Amino acid sequence: MLKSLYIKNYALIDSLEIDFEQGFSVITGETGAGKSIILGALGLIVGQRADAKTIKMGESKCVIEGIFNISAYDLKAFFTEREIDYDEICILRRELMSSGKSRAFINDTPVTLADLKELGNRLIDIHSQHQNLMLGDNQFQMHVVDALAGNANLLKEYNQIYTIYKDSEKKLKNLQDAITKSRQEEEYLRFQYTALDEAALKEGEQEELEAELEMLNHAEDIKSGLYKINILLSDDERGIVAALKESLSVTHSLSKMYNRSEEMQQRLDTAYIDLKDLSSEVERMAGDIEFNPERLAFVEERLNKIYSLQKKYNIDTVAGLLALKYEINKKLENIDSFDQQLKEQQQEVADNKEKVDLLASKLSSKRKSAIKPMEETLTKKTSVLGMPNIRFECNISPKQEADITGIDNLEFLFSANKNVPLQPVSEIASGGEISRLMLCLKSMIAGATALPTIIFDEIDTGVSGEIADKMGQIMQEFGQSMQVIAITHLPQIAAKGRAHYMVYKTDDEKTTTTNLRKLSDKERLEEIARMLSGASLTDAAIQNARVMLGLK
Q1: Spans in the chain with pLDDT lower than 70
Q2: Which of 484, 488, 441 has the alpha carbon at shortest distance from 462?
Q3: What pairing do the DSSP bridges indicate for beta strands 102-106 and 109-111?
Q4: Quick one: 59 and 199 in the same domain?
Q5: Which 8-state DSSP code applies to residue 132?
Q6: Residues 97, 238 within the same domain
């Protein structure tokens, strides 16, 4: 329930703080006193769009804060999911800056406007004449029937499995699209794979072949050069190896006379061994080199094959071609497994569809069970409100396919007069009739589920006298199980409230200010008398007001 409301610098409100009572309360005030301003401020803390023009003239910021007792609404999951501290006393705050920016808070934690709206709509239901139009909306009609049928948990379960079902359908569609596309590509993919597979590529092969080609193209030059190196190293008269051998002999003869010759001998010995070994290796290499036209042709053909594949697939390396081959192979393996994937996904869709149909059938059965009592109760309630000839039916029929609400089509049919056929309620009901229907429906829902605080904004439009008195009684009954606040211009309804608040304006030399305050018993008596008689407060009006309030 709404415990208190604080408004600062909003429209004509300078600063206002008011506590609200449990049960049924009423708000009255002269036309133009500012009742719509109070509703506008409440709208901001339940996430409605803000307009910087509503900030009080000359101020840079307005603040609206509502304090609620939320112990009855099972909202801990909402707070946990958003990492907001949960407390049974919850504070919603909205701050609006003249720049047009606004901020939203839940228990002093900054939140998005969407989060504020979601929570706010679960705490306050502002029922205006505009909301009466919802009576003709099929979604609202379904909500009413589900509430009366006690379908909340079943509907939650259904929505979850329906979402899973639609996701599985989407996966099946994506898989079917992928299969169609892949089947179209399959022949080309197999052609590509065959070409790459038959090429029998090996990593590093290109570099080895290119080096071999270079050698084969210059075989004579390489062989000649190696022979020359070998002669320079191993010639008996002028070769480096022979010179080193002679140097070693000289160094050995010096060893007895020159102590540093030992180090020299070791270095010359190492060089002699290395170069002698190198000479032998060069000789072998020269012997291995020979011009081989057949090998040259093979290497050139192999490289041309590699270059051709690289150009064809716009890939620079053999490693890249091998990666492409692997990728194509995986696609082909996937194509080969499509039949099994498709079968499994079709089965998943069928299983989920079976669950959806089962739950939709349960929902439909509970709805049908609730319709007859609903029709009888609504007819009884509305007949008391000046519609003795009302006929009301909830027409339910199957949809071709289940959707998020189930398998049922719902339509409220209505006739207020004898010999007038039933027609959709939105097409024939007058404003006053719709107001009374909505009041009765909400009173029925209130008996079936925990509703948020309901604020009726002049729901009594188009009624008066005894009918208004009956409407007040229904709201009074409402208030026995929940908080109801009615903004009214009828004394018959105002007299039924447990608490009475008045909106009024005050003027000074500079500004006009809107205020809201709770009336004392004496003030309430005078306010209802004034509503009965107008500006002049007569003894008869006072006495009539006393009767309405049940005073002696």
Answers
A1: 128-134, 236, 287, 428-431, 447-451, 461-462, 535, 552
A2: 488
A3: antiparallel
A4: no
A5: G
A6: no
Neighbours of 1 (CB within 10 A): 21
Residue 210: Cβ within 10 Å count: 12
Cα–Cα distance, 67 to 61 (Å, whole number): 20
Are the beta carbons of 427 and 434 closer than 8 angstroms? no
Count H helices, E strands: the chain?
A: 18, 15
Q: 315 with 206: CB under 8 angstroms?
A: no
**Residue whose token pair is 């003894």:** 539
The contacts of residue 178 (CB under 8 Å, 6+ apart) are: 338
Encoding tokens for residue 487?
């903004």
Q: Examine residue 364 and state whether it is found in any structural domain, yes or no.
A: no
Find the largest Cα–Cα distance for the chain. 153
Pair 289, 190 in one domain: yes
Q: Are residues 187 and 116 in the same domain?
A: no
- Identify the domain boundary among 290, 314, 336: 336
Same domain for 193 and 300, yes or no, is: yes
Beta bridge partners of 393: 413
**326 C-beta neighbours (distance < 10 Å), count:** 12
Residue 134, pLDDT score:
66
**Are 375 and 413 in contact, with CB atoms under 8 Å apart?**
no
Alpha-carbon gap, residue 25 to 18, rounded angstroms: 13
The neighbouring-strand residues paired with 55 are 10
- CB atoms under 10 Å from CB of 287, counted, come to 12
**Rounded CA separation 141/123 (Å):** 21
Amino acid (1-letter code) at residue 167: D
Nearest to 140 by CA among 394, 381, 321: 394
Give me the half-sphere count of Cα atoms (radius 13 Å) on the Cβ side of residue 218: 9
100 and 222 part of one domain: no
Query: Tell me: the pLDDT tens digits for 424-459?
Result: 887 765 667 777 888 888 888 876 666 678 888 877
For the domain that residue 80 is a member of, what is the CATH number?
3.40.50.300
Which of 336, 358, 386 marks a domain boundary?
A: 336
For 200, phi and psi rounded to 5 degrees?
Answer: 50, 50
Q: Is the full-model pTM beyond 0.70?
A: no
**One domain, residues 330 and 192:** yes
- My answer on whether 184 and 322 are in the same domain is yes
The b/e string for 226-247 (b: 16+ C-beta within 10 A; e otherwise) is bbebbeebbeeeebbbeebeeb
Residue 486's domain comprises 1-123+452-519
CB contact at 8 A, 390 and 423: no
Taking the C-alpha atoms of residue 358 and residue 219, their distance in angstroms, rounded to an integer, is 84
In a domain, 224, yes or no: yes
Total tally of structural domains belonging to the chain = 2
Residue 185 lies in a domain: yes
Q: Tell me how far apart the alpha carbons of residues 246 and 73 are, in angstroms, rounded to a whole number.
A: 109
Residue 240 located in a structural domain: yes
